[in-house]
Amino acid sequence: MRYLSGIQPSGVLHLGNYFGAIRQHIRSQEENECFFFIADYHALTSIRDASTLRRNVLGVALDYLALGLDPERVAFFRQSDVPEVTELTWILSTVTPMGLLERCHSYKDKIARGISPDHGLFAYPVLMAADILIYDSNRVPVGKDQVQHVEVTRDIAQRFNNTYGETFVIPECQVDESAAVVPGIDGQKMSKSYGNTLEMFAPEKQLKKSISRIVTDSKTVEEPKDPEESIVFQLYRLVASQEDAEAMALRFRQGGYGYGEAKKELLRMTLEYFADARRRRAELERDPQSVEEILAAGARKARATARKTLDRARKAVGIDG
Ligand code: ADP
Ligand code: TRP
């Protein structure tokens, strides 16, 4: 089974990204053949500053490698290191109905927010279809917001196959329903656009400050508390062992345990949970050349597959002279 997913290099990662998506990505390397790439061509539709884009791409690479992505098992690469994907995008765009793209929620949402659309934003799903189809992907693990784009991919692939004969593998979407929705420090869903995140690679001082700002109710230390209603506990449960989580829940229910204590414990456990990853990230950061080498090796592997699929598509349409 070949798994493929793209990661937008959109900024600093947080616990919501990790427990909602990255952890599942990394786990899938155990049993599957995985292709993961950093979607820098897609990022051009929102990042208009070269140094920000470069910094974000390197940042995502460091984050994934530090969190346990194994480049020996996974082809991990930069989307733009496989330029074949842009050629396939053009070919696919010639069998993509306008209406299919006009119906895409993420495009419509951006327009509704007053973003004036350029062609890149409109054509975004066609590039994504090329990403998926060029590697003969079977499974595409994505968050709920990307499901429609995978459906568009299937539709484009079927249209192409109907017009030109069997060329592309039809991919399946995989949404992990069990993935936690991680609350932010204000209780809304954790998201960088709400400014309510806890970042696993932030310096300890910054993490401590963010944790100290977690919203709590006005119960006194003595009063018993319902752990399920506490954001501190909901976050603690993610980074603690079951035993430690149960122990904290008990202290909450018994009373005599204040939010200040619980926050201290949350900080300690978060640092402990991510200790190896934080250490690895710091090491890799000192050696960006090794990260470049990993991405280059990933691209070589990805490119070999991409070339074959592109040649198949070129032949199918009659551009193979
Ligand atoms: P943000 O909301 O911070 O912009 P993204 O939209 O870039 O995050 O999300 C990247 C991935 O992380 C997606 O797969 C998304 O489903 C997941 N994710 C983001 N925030 C959360 C959260 N609070 N809980 C669970 N998953 C999340
Ligand atoms: N659009 C995806 C996102 O915003 C990223 C992405 C690009 C992707 N190409 C992909 C995801 C191909 C899965 C498969 O998260």
Architecture overview:
With 321 residues, this protein is mainly alpha-helical. It folds into two domains: 211 residues, Rossmann fold; 72 residues, Tyrosyl-Transfer RNA Synthetase, CATH 1.10.240. Helix content is 55%, strand content 7%. The chain has 14 helices and five strands. The strands form two sheets. It has a three-stranded parallel beta sheet with strand order 1-2-3. It has a two-stranded parallel sheet with strand order 4-5. α1 links the parallel β1 and β2. The mean pLDDT is 95. The site of tryptophan has 12 residues, from β1 and α7.
Task: Please specify the SSE layout and strand pairing.
Elements: E1 2-7, H1 15-28, E2 33-38, H2 40-43, H3 50-66, E3 74-78, H4 84-93, H5 98-102, H6 105-112, H7 119-133, E4 139-141, H8 147-164, E5 172-174, H9 204-212, H10 231-239, H11 242-254, H12 259-273, H13 275-285, H14 288-317
Helix pairs in contact: 3-13, 4-7, 4-14, 7-8, 9-12, 10-12, 12-13
The protein binds adenosine-5'-diphosphate and tryptophan.
